[in-house]
Design goal:
The complex is a heterodimer of chains A (about 110) and B (about 325).
Chain A: E1 5-7, E2 9-10, H1 18-25, H2 29-37, H3 55-71, H4 75-102
Helix pairs in contact in A: 1-2, 3-4
Chain B: H1 6-10, H2 18-32, H3 42-56, H4 59-66, H5 104-119, E1 133-139, H6 141-146, E2 148-159, E3 165-176, E4 185-188, E5 204-210, E6 216-219, E7 222-229, H7 231-236, E8 238-242, E9 249-253, E10 263-265, E11 278-284, H8 292-305
The chains are: A mainly alpha (about 110), B alpha+beta (about 325).
């Protein structure tokens, strides 16, 4: 048991480097570079050494890597799947709100 | 321990070709992949399918599994017959999912050979950074609103000396900063897996997930609340008490507000940059006509208002 209280760093307040991303996703830096090249991740900064990623990139990268590994999808396919998943998420949100509004009708 | 019918899980015949095994796996993996699937129990099914595939895709493991014979029923009590795996050699390739993902049944059959290939890398002088770990932490909405300290229990699968998986538990007290949103991550430096050969420890990433609230719904930093109101409160206007995660506030409902018309309470959502808003959606709640007096009141409205709520429908 550890009774100390730990204070973490909130991603979004800090940004991640390419090396942080490779550690957090258990993949090589090259694989992170490939995800950027495919447009799946959009860091700020010029070279891979200077890239900075936001917290949402980590979620995206981990999903991308799982899809590649588990479904045998190539990078282009992963990029497409992620865009479609985003769209489904947005549509689900709109559906939820619309259903919420419709509940009030007789 | 229960017997698992890997062929049944994959929905294929026992004489399926390796190509058929792969096709069945791909199809089921797409259906149940936790990142894409909205099926119930997707994660559980995905793990089952992954385990079945780990055995059936590997000719050595499949042959050994087949040797148990076709007469077992899924769920039947199972003990591996002594020496069942004599003559089979497992090369131990193919650990893609984490060690804890497989069933006891799988472990009893392939556990040791499979694991030992993964624990690997003895040898001296090898030094590596520990792996990063990821975990979810469930918090209440009010924790995001005010900030809190939460105890997080982590279960980490580890290998004991004989290559068996044991689950180690440890608890951490973690500060949840005010204003965290669903899906955000907190990084705890050095709280991941220990390094190897004196290398630095990995980091731990905690993903924030809100426990569902009975009446507040969270959307990013905004909060939605369905607020029951009496018809006259909407018609005449009223000042009503509204719960917020920060405590009740007074809300002025303008006269003539329609049901379902969103009312925004600025900056009463989850604090952050920018602060979230609280959206109150009035829902008409009908007073029951369960006394003579109430019935008389409804009757009077009916007779004096001449209101047709369906006029827009042309009837």
């Amino acid at each position: 048991m550890n009774e100390r209280t730990l204070t973490g760093l909130l991603l979004d307040e800090i940004e991640l480097t390419s090396i942080d991303m490779s550690h957090a996703c258990s993949v090589s830096v090259e694989q992170i570079v490939e995800l950027v090249a495919e447009g799946v991740l959009e860091p700020v900064g010029g070279d891979p050494q200077e890239w900075r990623f936001r917290g949402t990139s980590l979620t995206r990268a981990r999903t991308a890597i799982r899809l590649q590994r588990d479904l045998g999808v190539n990078l282009a396919g992963v990029a497409l799947a992620l865009e479609l998943l985003d769209e489904i998420d947005q549509l689900r949100g709109r559906l939820r709100r619309a259903e919420g509004a419709a509940r009030g009708l007789p | 321990m229960k017997y698992r019918d890997y062929y049944e899980i994959m929905g294929i015949e026992r004489d399926a070709t390796q190509d058929e095994v792969k096709r069945a796996y791909r199809k089921l993996a797409r259906k149940y992949h936790p990142d894409v699937s909205k099926e119930k129990e997707a994660e559980v099914r995905f793990k089952e399918v992954g385990e079945a595939y780990a055995v059936l895709r590997d000719p050595e493991k499949r042959a050994a599994y087949d040797q148990l014979g076709p007469n077992w029923e899924a769920g039947q009590d199972f003990r591996p017959p002594p020496g069942w795996d004599a003559g089979f050699e497992f090369s131990g390739e193919g650990g893609q999912a984490d060690a804890s993902a497989y069933s006891e049944f799988f472990d009893s059959l392939f556990g040791r050979g499979f694991r030992s290939a993964q624990t690997g890398r003895p040898g001296s002088g090898f030094r590596a950074r520990g792996e990063d770990h990821h975990a979810k932490v469930l918090i209440d909405l009010v924790d995001a609103y005010q900030g809190a300290t939460r105890s997080v229990t982590l279960r980490t699968p580890e290998f004991d000396d004989s290559g068996h998986v044991i689950t180690k538990e440890r608890s951490l007290n973690v500060k949840i900063p005010k204003g965290v949103a669903q899906g955000q991550r907190i990084r705890l430096t050095g709280q991941g897996a220990p390094g190897i050969g004196g290398g630095p420890a990995g980091d731990l990433y905690l993903e924030i997930e809100f426990r569902p609230h009975s009446f507040f719904k969270v959307d990013g930093r905004d909060i939605y609340l369905d607020l029951p109101v009496a018809p006259w409160e909407l018609a005449l206007g009223a000042t009503v008490k509204v719960p917020t995660p920060g405590g009740p506030v007074d809300l002025k409902i303008p006269a003539g507000t329609a049901g379902d018309q969103k009312l925004r309470l600025k900056k009463r959502g989850i604090p952050g940059t920018p602060d979230g808003d609280l959206y109150v959606v009035p829902k008409i709640s009908l007073a029951p006509a369960d006394t003579d007096k109430a019935k008389a009141l409804y009757l009077r409205m009916k007779e004096e208002l001449h209101y047709n709520p369906r006029s827009k429908l042309g009837v």
